[in-house]
Known about the structure:
Low-confidence stretches: none
Number of strands: 19
Mean pLDDT: 96
Amino acid sequence: MLVLEQLKAALEPSRVSTNPSVLEQHSKDESYHEPALPDVVVFPKTTEEVKKIVGIANEHRIPVTAFGIGSSLEGHVIPYEGGISVDFSQMNEILEVNPHNFTVRVQPGVTRNQLNEHLKKYGLFFPVDPGADATIGGMTATNASGTTSVKYGVMRDQVRDLEVVLPNGEIIHTGSEVVKSSSGYHLTGLFVGSEGTLGLFTEITLKVHGIPEAILAARATFDSVKQAVQAVVGIISAGIPIARVELVDEASIAQVNKIKQTDYEIAPTLFLELHGNEAGLNEDVKFLEEILANEGVNEIIFEKDALARNRLWEARHYMAYAYIHGNPGKKMMVTDVCLPFDELAEAIVAARKKLDETGLVGGIVGHVGDGNYHVIIMIDLDDLDEVKRAEHFNEFVVEYALKRGGTCTGEHGVGVGKLKYQKAEHGAAYELMKKIKRALDPHNLFNPGKLIK
């Protein structure tokens, strides 16, 4: 009771909730991981209020878990030890746009679509696209990426500065608006991807980009996944300004055809998008066609018009919907690994073979321009045998990647789902991560049980 009274005094009674439906909302994310209720949910509006919340948590040794919009996929926001769930939805202001510096400063609750809508009038956009309309704070916490990372990079490449409330209540800035610095440890890089285990973000300064003059989309089909991946390597080696390049396997194309009543060729398919200027893209198209032909492309379709581009991308954009709609009563589980280019094709082939052996429903998609691929699996959470098969399949995919110099997560993050692979992936460096966690959060109050065991 004392904690509740202190929280209500620090914020407002209306922004401190123990309502069962609010607690339930903050007990889960979009993953298949088991929910757990927080004891209380708070909705701060300012950095000072976040500092007060952290002070109360420290005084009573209560766990603190940050919550954005709940779109994470590895249980990041599930408060398994109860405590305070800090919902940043009311810290959603775009504080400053500096078009001359190509930067924007936002609060963590700002969403990706909200930000891009605001940036349009400046002729700018923020490129990181994880699919969901996630919050910038959540995307920063997980080092999110997505379809555009092949050209623009991941979240860690966009963040210039963070305002962070540390577990001891201290407020720090990790960087500045400058393009580069050789001063001190790279604290911004440390906090991006820390999943709320080292501090709570209250302001984020991002790099933004000019909206490209021209955009060209293409869809290309091949006889094999290996041909498709080799084509991507050729495109990147040639310096073609590819902004997105996505692979969709045969089973996934068939699933879209079934649900959307379309008639796309059932074959390994690349969806591509180029950003640049008109004259440059015209030249790039010729070069692109040559590279794809050398790799045995069956068909390639180009589109420049925005509506036509959207139609061309339809099979990729509707993938999750197609599997969910086609498997009512089942939950979607998505694997997430990243490998070196020379290992990627064989990894995808091995994953498809293993998935077929399990008898589970699913398909493979991937941001193959950066070596990242996902397997979508539909499982009945009430069928323990099906859940076990899915977990074993996930282990196969991860262990295959780690043995070949890859990573257990390319963009979804560690959370609880990939926690058991951290020692195997990082070796002695994992012990250093533990020391950093102990130094900054000695009482293990910030998102305990995630990322660092």
